[in-house]
Write a structure and sequence with these properties.
249 residues; alpha/beta; Uracil-DNA Glycosylase, subunit E; 6 strands; 39% helix; globular
Length: 249
Amino acid sequence: MDVPPRDQEIATPGRGITASSRDMAALAREVTACRRCPRLVSWREEVARHKRAAYAGEEYWGHPVPGFGDPEARVLVVGLAPAAHGANRTGRMFTGDRSGDWLYAALHRAGFANRPESISRADGLALTDCYVTAAVRCAPPANKPTPTERDACRAFLEREMDLLARIRVIISLGGFAFHQLCRILNDRGESLPSPRPPFFHGQELSLHPGLTLLASYHPSQQNTFTGTLTRDMFDAIWERARELLEECG
């Protein structure tokens, strides 16, 4: 069984091996070994066996994908799930597909990433003050997890939220992540609007003092190719995150 490499899942540049990074590494190993959802296990492993022709010479990850980034982050980014031939292939969130190209380029422009692209777990990419994860950790058929699969992964996201003790801004990429975060935050006693707040690009919810949930359209090909999400729209989300961090001090 593969386990996450000794990159940012374990160590943070400039900080060394901290208690937080050790806890994150232990969680990453648990995520990687998970087999709770039979449909997702079957699908992710089938995709890893029957590879896309463009990647025929590569060894696919084919396991659940752990989060990636700075264990001392103040910005938490939550997507939907690994892409079948993206993170399910490379083993790193938002890596190896067009969505990741958009995400990490934007993070680099905003100063959260040391390089504008994410190619593989060994490419030297490092995030500063930012951690990237997803609501579901296995690539789902048709990119649509069931409610049962969504809920089975919830504990992993909640544990990341607990370990990332400095989080001040949570950014949801897409409606799926936004609504799952609203469920979690509501159950944790946050004062969310009633009825449940709608998802839209730029939606901003102020939670307990010093914590904000921001919503963005997902940087999927469907959204970026059609202009539903533009570079300026996406950059505005990260600029707002920076503003909120400055307000927190």
